[in-house]
Design goal:
By secondary structure, this protein is of the alpha/beta class. The strands form 4 sheets. Strands 15-14-13-12-11-10-23-24 form an 8-stranded mixed beta sheet. Strand 2 and strand 3 form a beta hairpin.
Length: about 800
Amino acid sequence: MLLALCIVAGASRVWLLPVGIAGLLLYFQYAQPLWRREAIFALLLLAAGFIYALLTFVPPDDPGMDGETVTLSGAVSSYPQYFDNRVSFEFAPENPVAPALELIQVNVYDEFTAGRGDVLELTGKLIRPRAAGNPGQFDYRAYLEYQGIYYCLRVDAAEKATVIAPGGGIGGMLSDYRSKYGAYVEKALTPQEAAVLLGMVLGQREAIDEERYTDFQNTGVVHLFSVSGLHVGFLMLSLAVLVLYASLVGWPVPVTRAGIMSALLMAAYYWGRQKQSMNALSLAGIIILLLEPHALFTVSFQLSFGAAYGLVWLFPLLRDALPRSGRLIDALLIPLCAQLATLPLIIYYFHLFSPVSVPANLLVTWLAAAAVMCGFLTAIVFPFSSLLGAFFIYPAGMLVELIMRFIELSARLPGAYLMTAAVSPLLIAAYYLGLIILGLRWQRIAQERLAVMAQSGAEPTEEVTGAAEIEAGHGAESQETKALPALRPAGHKAWLDPMRPHWSWVALLLIALLFGQAFYPAGWRQRGELEVVFIDVGQGDAILIKSPTGKFIMVDGGGSRTYEVGEDVVLPYLYQRGVRQLDMMLSSHPDFDHTDGLTGVAEALPVIMAGFGVNSMHDEDYASLLGILREQETEILSLQKGDILQVEPGFTIEVLHPQAGKVYRDGDDNNDSLVLALRWREFSLLLTGDAEQTAQQILLRDNALKQFAAVKVPHHGSRSALTDGFYETVRPQVAVISVGANNSYGHPHPDVMAALTQQGIRVWRTDVHGAVTLLTDGQWLNVSGAAATDD
């Protein structure tokens, strides 16, 4: 724990944390002479860890090659992942020109096959990944940097990726073996059975049906596809088997952790120290962090060690504290303790709480154990005999089918999963503090039971010695537990003892604080203020409006041809805010970069009312979205010039364009965009969609435009949307441009930026500032960006 805290402090250059911990250690050294040796050791570890992190977390200099086209030769250093539209793998170039290019993430957008260890020649564009532009968004740049990757290489055609030489040595053999095993499984089982089994055995998730994978996530059993210590536990036959399996799956952090633990426990068994699982787990963590300190900041590391600590520390304490014991109770407590230890992390990263997780894991874990065993045995025997392989692969397929049916049923239960709002790291720390206090309380209960049994002359059972073993660290032979009740503070200091009963209520309160923030209604935050957020969706529009009384309105939802904007960007942002329902959804026009994300949002969240432009609502590009909304029984509105949506008293949305029955299209539907005027008290905002010169000239001619406090720049700052007199009439203080970084359209156009600058308008851009938020009480206006400070 000390090492982890030091790495966090060193990576973030926070000196106060190690200084504070050092102060506490010095106090304990002074106040508790018996702990003096431990305190000195902890101080040395603290200093070493902090200095190590300071030296390690120094990113290499950026060579400034973002956007450059290069030709590189090198070797594939990971097992490739095959998606519908691309192949992805890590690539180590020969003679890299800069340290930041020693390892590159490659994406080939074509049909291409490669193996780990293959030597390739690649021609493509180097891309520096952007940091997350929205709160709650997966930070792909940080994810890659934790693996030592600072650039991606985009290869657009298979002919630009050439295999110079196949991989050799053990790596090449393993890659070939893995490919043949995958082909054998896919031939023997149905596509989905094969995809799920390969996901559980090898961690290959890309072929799993998207809806089915979501069911696994929502029921809390998606960890089956993150090859982990669970799998190692199933296969802990010998170190040779563990090394073979870890090499086959690529040595991910959970497998590395479990492999080290297994090796240490095996060594402890031969040396007669079988009760050292906590020490083995801690030592495994120290080894991994010394080899790769960046692993501490990955979700995989945190979940893996969190679950392991739940099983190694919490499980025996809770089991021993209960008045009854048995295999059935243990079967219930094992998934419960793992869930308790990882729950804050799941809420923090995935905004998900799954009440069915414990019962789902109770059954699925054992079915998965059998399936993984059968799958692994298949991998061992199929090269020698297809018939013998069939003896194991068909039972594996049957078990996978049972798992899929059970998960599908569990995911459809009412209240099977609940989406949560973002929680602060401080409340996560409070939760774990509460869990530690509960653990200490359970330990005290077990110790007191053990002491009573010893005084009565009864023989202690194996079940009630676990807590004492954790305390003493030497197994059941320790007799120190008889005297432990006397360690309670005396007199007025007794209340400070964390093992006293009243501290259980303190612990429960600390845990409840996390749930309070997670389920706090989103509409209750910042009551009395209007909030408009221009979500960073790349080249597209997505705007979330929160009314002063807490109603949520979505205007457009972004869209991309290469990834699911709704599921990957918009929904994570809504979830981290705790939005569980949209009171209104408005679509400016049916262009893909405005509507595609709305479809994903409508599939996930109920929508009370939806509005579309009168001239475009029957466009075929709306067919899928309208079908989802009608299935929800959403009220659908046809909007035209003159319509006023009374959101709540004092807050209105007026439709300024288009007019019914008039055609504004000239090769596209941009000039059919809804143009909306938001008004609340003294604040006003003009949302223009992709309205270009034709629509703007109509608005100017009809005197529909007045002065607005803020404006969304039309069509992402396109030159075709720049109209003489537009900004002179609107005269906004603030202009927001929703635009993608390094887009191929050249948006925003220099002429547009010049026009805005000439008018003295302050410009905010999603490609520069990330999500841009306008917050107002109707009198003052505050503007902020998620990726930059006000400038």
